[in-house]
Amino acid sequence: QVQVVESGGGLVQAGGSLRLSCAASGIAFSFYRMNWYRRTPRKKRELVASDAPDGSTTYADAVRGRFTTSRDNAQNTGYLQMVSLKPEDTAVYYCNMLNGPRDYWGQGTQVTVSS
């Protein structure tokens, strides 16, 4: 059984930092692309970061330079480090593990940035 679990969300003041974790079980973590999405009530789901098995990463323009992904394949865990947070970063953040047709999602973790 595959499980993807995010953690690390919370309430932070603007300018602060958070690190989200994505723990996956039941998959060969190192072979999967790790995507981080976010969703707000007003916006569609947005891809904010993508971390490929080969180590390449991409970021949405809105977060580039402030968000950084990393992964510990031995621990089957990935991370999204977020610094200089802004109120517009407030959203539910989801981890997506993707390998071809194998597509697994976590339940999301709420990030709230107060001004």
Topology of helices and strands:
Layout: E1 3-7, E2 10-13, E3 18-25, E4 33-39, E5 46-51, E6 57-59, E7 67-72, E8 77-82, E9 91-99, E10 102-105, E11 109-114
Characterize the structure shown.
It is a single chain. This protein is mainly β and 115 residues long. The chain contains no helices and 11 strands. It has strands at residues 3-7, 10-13, 18-25, 33-39, 46-51, 57-59, 67-72, 77-82, 91-99, 102-105, 109-114. The strands form 2 sheets. Strands 2, 4, 5, 6, 9, 10 and 11 form a 7-stranded mixed sheet that branches. The mean pLDDT is 96.
Notable features of this structure?
115 residues; mainly beta; four-stranded antiparallel β-sheet
Short description:
The chain has no helices and eleven strands.
Q: Low-confidence spans: pLDDT under 50, at least 5 residues?
A: none
* Mean model confidence by pLDDT: 96
Question: Gap between N and C termini, in Å?
Answer: 41 Å
Number of strands: 11
Structural class: mainly beta
The profile of the biggest β sheet is:
7 strands, mixed
* Strand/helix succession: EEEEEEEEEEE
| Overall form | globular
Question: Helix amount, in percent?
Answer: under 10%
Relative strand content: over 45%
Radius of gyration: 13 Å
Number of distinct helices: 0
